[in-house]
Structure formats: structure tokens, C-alpha cells
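pipeline/complex-builder :: batch 7 item 3
reading input block
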Amino acid sequence: MSLDRRSSPLLRPGLLRAVVGAALGAAIGAGVLMLANATIKLNAQPGHLLGLGYIGAFFGFLLGIGAFRFWLTWASGRQVDEAEEHAAHGTAGDWTRYLRFTTDHKVIGVQYLVTAFVMFMAAGIGAMFMRLELAQPGLLIGKEAYNTAMSTHGAMMITVALISIIGGLGNYLVPIMVGARDMAFPKANALSYWMLPIPVLMVAINPLLGGFDTGWTAYPPLSQQANLGQQAYLMAFVTVGFSSILSSINFLTTVFRMRAPGMTLMRMPIFVWALTVTATLGLIATSVVAGAFTMVLFDRLIGTSFFRATRGGDVILFQHLFWFYSHPAVYIMAVPGLGAVLEIVPVFARKPLFAYPIAVLAFIMIGVMSFMVWAHHMFVSGMAEYFHIPIMLTTELISVPTGVVFLAAIGTIWMGRIRFRVPMLWVFGFLWAFLVGGITGVYLADVPTDIALSDTFFVVAHFHYTIIGSTIFGLFAGTYYWFPKITGRMYDERLGRIQFWWFAIAFNLTFLPMFWLGIEGMRRRVADYPAELGGVNLFVSVMAVNIALSVGLFVYLMVRAWMRGPRAEANPWEAQTLEWQCTSPPPVENFEHIPVVTGTPYQYGSPPMAAIPPSTAPAPGHPAP
Amino acid sequence: MMSQRRHLLIAGLIWAVLSIVSMVLMAGIQVLPEIASKEAVVEDRTFVLLTVVSMPVLWFVVVGMAYSAIRFRSRPGDDGDGPPMHGHVGVQTAWLLVTLVMVLGLFAYGAVGLVEIRGTQQADYEVHVKGQQWEWHFTYPNGATSTELHVPVDQRVHLLIESEDVIHSLWLPALGVKQDAVPGRVTEAYTTPTVTGTYGGRCAELCGFGHTDMTLTFVVSDQPDLQAWLDHLPKEPPSQ
């Protein structure tokens, strides 16, 4: 094996070499600056050291993990070692492939998924600190600690919401669902994942750098005056943005170029459609926020004045740039969840997806319109007066395509033969949560009510209902649904049910009272509140702890099932999409023969026909090429 | 087996009853805890209207879910499928049209309210507001300044808002005012107080670690009371 050529594990591409590389890179980046500073008096600040050290650590880590080794070999004119390239794909059953630069999309999917759940729990710890502070009026952990916990929780959860479904479930499933052997660019795919550890670590350790108090929105001038933790967050977010753009290109190329014969666009599973729209949004919008954050970094580090009012900059410009990405980002978070839910509904309702073409059109319309609504975050910001009316109109209008999700879901369960397995419970939980989130969104889209509600806990409750409602309920639904496919094992149905009800009830009892708190005038991002709101806040805190405990149960039951759950069949849910025609888990290259697709994936209730031939043997009448 | 039509009829009836009852109940409520200006009345009225209109939507989905969960649950041992229904042109068209008309209606109502709150640029009284980390300063037409806001009742008050450092947001809940204070700009808000009294206000935009304590008191008073209070204030030249 070529991998064994270099005997010392320090020299082989891998996690150990990556950690050493990161440390070396940080030392080189910061060291060069310190050296220059000592010799020619550059007046370098800690921020400059952090910046160069971070860039050094980032590339050191990637070089160490071996992310560039194939491209570097190719660029230097040498032949890439085929055995090594093949080994990078990983072998089935080898757990170390999850800790390496592995190019198999299924491994990368699991890496994303596990990372997302770990971050979800880390962000949950931040939330626990917040609810500890808010459990009673007065101050406990203090204003600075509260704001840092709040900002870190937000930054972490935004990342989870951005990457969990598309990066985790999407990576694992999209190639199989469209009948491909891998993503279009497997090495770039692995690169997108391995770009994440350093920035995520950066956000996680920001309290050591003084924390940051702006929340994830990082509005200047506050973000210009805040300390190093702020800079860590800005740099990390820009990096995650690069990863997101890279992975978007990969998804789009895969969907448009790698589909199996017969897999026309209108035969694609709705989940694939949702991720196609998501990737398009990620590709177009992300560079705008990366630009805006980079401009803040430049204002902080190299003396520019993009957002410094005292020197001709414009503070509100940042908000326009930020929300021009960050509202589409809301759909980057939500649409994969909507797609996962609509994928699961027909399987457990035993009926075809209702109004499939309209649902596809609705996703596309959500994608298009999401670029026209950003300024509804700015109704009280002091932006141009005339701009309120058109933004209010577009924001109200986007609820038409979003509402189609309910048409499709309810149309599908109506007259169905609903099987209430755990994934379907999450679908119903989603419908309720996203409904509440959607309805309360109208109050914030409407300027007169938004004046009263903006920057209160009403907003906090609303976006937790939409984002947890869509992304997290969708993530749980999808994880329970595809778990047997991904691990080849089955979880305990009874524990799964308990976990669902525990989470769903605690979630609603945590966030429903927040609407009331917001109407009563409780501000968001504030460590203290009027004493008369103490009782409700204590109740909310207790319920929030229950959310955390229910997630703990989820981790327990999933880990237990993964280690020693009973073996899962290839198709335990009797679903019709391609991934269920492979074994559980699918072999390394998914299909021995690329399948030929002859119909839509939702033929429930029709006389049994081999609409989709199994992976290993071509179905009668549909010979594989 | 009950027919599709029969199911629709029963679910529709449940939906109609729940919608009408909840709409009637919601129509009478006051949502905002304190209302002391024309603008706050508009905001509260809009809130109530949105709540009333959203009731049928809420119940449509909830009844659809609950009815299906109960009546279309797969019985033990039943491993069959539902009918192969891929869509229904009438239902789809109706859904899209109804939601479209609904959101356009809500938009129109919101736009009218917006014009009522911010449409007129005329004012009887002008106060300059300055936010800084972490307190508010108010300057009155006679040049007097204070950290407590006093405004006259039954006059349209024009607030000209600036910031010394970072973004703040002047939030006067009882008056229905929330407007960011942005460095490098002068932002504006209008309010017509209708009820005299003393109220609490706060900064609504995260402005640093002191944001929590950036609160203020504001008073709506009769013209003579306001004048008397102003006469006792130290005078400084107006800030602009």
C-alpha cells in the first residue's frame, strides 16, 4: 500500500499530521509578523497576530490532513498514485476512514452529521448558560458572560442549521437518490468538510479571546469596537462561507450532470429538489456576507472605513449586505428541512406526494423571492422610508410558496394509511412548529406590528419556531428515517417515541411563552428583565433544560443502536426512492450497475411495478447499460 | 369506508366552528400591555386583525393534521397503501388563489397602518434625541436638555434621533415608537401621545455590555405641566 510508504504517523496524511500542521502554521503565520514587528516596527496589534496565525493554522491543518495532496501531485506534473486515490475512498467497515481525508460521499455525510450534532450540543450548552442567567431577574453569570454565551450559541446554531441537513444527509443521500456513484467532485467534497474544524474551534474558544457581544449579526460599529473574540467569529464565518460555496458547486454539478438514465428533473425526489434550491442560494448569496464580514475585518485591522460613519462610511450599508445573504440563509436552513419532511410524508402516509410539481415550483419560487425580502429585518433601522412598502409586499408574498409545503403535506396525509413510526411523528411535530413560526412571521413582516415586536423575545420565539421547526425537526425526522440506511442498524422504536414527545413538548413549552414575554416588552440579547416576568422565565428555563435532556436521550439511543442495534433490512419503510434499493448501508460505490429510472419515486397505491430497478440486478424489462 | 366527500364535510365543519369561535374570541382582545398614543393604537389594532385572520389558517392545518392522524391512521396489520392520488387541480388552484388574496389583503391593511404611523411629515413639537453608550439625551425646542423624555399630550411629536457611538434603538412601548439611532445619520419617528402619565422605555438594539441597563423614563403631560418642567431644566445650546 502506498499509504504505508511513510512509516511515521507524523508524516502520513491524517489527523495527527493535521494538528501538528495547524500548530506549525499558526506559529509561522504569527511568528513572521512578530519577527517583522521586532525588526521594522510594524506596530502589529494582537488582532493582526490572530489573523495571520489563523490563516496559517487553517492551511497547515488542510495540508496536514492531506487535502491538497492529489492536486499538488497533479499540479507538479506527476502521476497521481491510483492506489492512493482509491484508498482515499475508504473501505467499508473501517471506522478510521471517518477521521481521515476520505472522498466517499457517504463518509463525508456521516462526518458532517456527527459534527453537526456535536455542535448542536455545544450550542445547547451556551443556551443553558443563557437560561441560567434568565431563570431569575437580576444578574447571575453577568452581562459579559451572558452576551458571549448568547453570541456563541447563535454562531454555533447558525452553522448547525446551515450544514447539518445539506452537509450530512444531503452528502450521504443525494448521489444515491439521483443514481450516481459519488458526488461530482469527491476531493472538493472532502475539502469542504475539512475546512470546518479550524473555524468551528475558533468560535468555540472565543470566550478565551474575550468573547464577543454582538450576536451572530455582528453589526458595526459595535463589532468594530468589540474584542478579539469578535474577530475570531468574523474570520470563522467567512471560512465556513467558503466551505459552503464549494459544497454548493458540488451539489449543483452532481444534480445536473450525474443523474442516472431516466432520472429526469421531474422524477427527482423532492429532497433532492430542495437541496438543489438550497445549494443555488448558498452559491449566490454567501459571497455577499463573506464580503461584508471581510470589510468589517478590514475596518478593524487595516484601517479602512467601509462602515465608520465618522470617516465617511455607512453603518446601514452593512445591514443591507448582511441581510442580503442572511435572509436567503434562513431558507438555506429551512428548505432542506422542508425537503426532508416532504420526502418522508409519502412513505408513511402510503400515498404519492400531493402536488409534487407545485411543490417543486414553490421551492424554486422561495429561492428566487428570498433575495427580495431581506430589508424586513430593517424596518426600524432608519433605512429609506419608501423601501418599507415593497419589502413588506414581497415578504408577505413569499408566504404563498412557503405555504405550499402545508398543501403538499396535508394533501398527502389526507385519505392516506398513516403509519406513525418515529420519523412520521417528527413530521407532525414539524407541521405544528413551522405553522406557528409561519403565522408569527406575518406579524414581523407587517411594519406596524413589527415596530412593537422588533428586537423583543417575540422575534426570538418566532425564529426558533421557524428554524428549529424546519431545520431541527427536519434533521431529527431525516436522521430517524435514514438511520437504518446509514448505519445498517435499527434503533429502539419505543425510546425514539419517548424522545420525540419529550423534545416536542419541552420545545413548545420553552418557546410558546416567549411570544408572550416579547409582547410584554422583554428585549432580546439582554441579561436582565423586569421582575414581574420572573415566573414565566423560570418556567421557560426549566423547559429548556428538558430540551437538553431529551437531546441527551437521542444521543444515547442513537449511539446504542449504532453499536449494537438489530440489523436493518435494505428497505424497512417500504420506500420507493433509490437509496432504499441499495443494501443498508450501501456499498462503497453505491451501485454495481447504474439503475435506469422509469417513473416518479412516489408510486404508492399503484399496482406494484418495478418502477425503479434494484441496484444489483436490472429489473425485468429495464436493462441496465 | 366513508367517502372522501363525507370526510371533507366533517373536517370542514369542525374547522369552521373552531375558526369562527376563535375569531370572535380574538377580536375583542388588547395585545400591547400599554397604549398611550395613536400609533400604539394602530399597532395594537393591526396585531388583533392579524390574529383574527390567522385563526382559520391555524385551524386548517391543525384540523387537517388531527383529523388525518385519527381517521387515516393505518390499522394494525394493514400494510396497504392509500389511493394513488397525485394531486387535484381544483384544490391546488384554490389553495394558491386563497393564500395569494389573503397575503395581499394583509399587505394592504399593513400599508394603511404604516401610512397612518409614518405617512405625515408634519409635527407640532420637536425633540432631538441622542443615544450614547449607555444613556439617552433629549433636547427640547427651548434648548433645555434632559435624560428623561417629556412630551406634550395630543400633539404630534417629531423625534430626531442620532447616535454618538454605536447603533441604539429608542423604544417607547406605550407610544408605539421604536427607531434605531444610527451613527452618521439622523433618523426620525413620529408619535401622537393621547394619555398622560409616566412610562418606561428602553434601548432595543444591542449596543454593548451596558445595553441591559440602557433604560429611560418618559412622561406624557399637559402643555402647562410640560412648560413648567422645562423651565426648571438647565439650558444648553441645541446640539445642531
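note: Chain B touches chain A through 82 residues (CB under 8 Å).
queue -> next item
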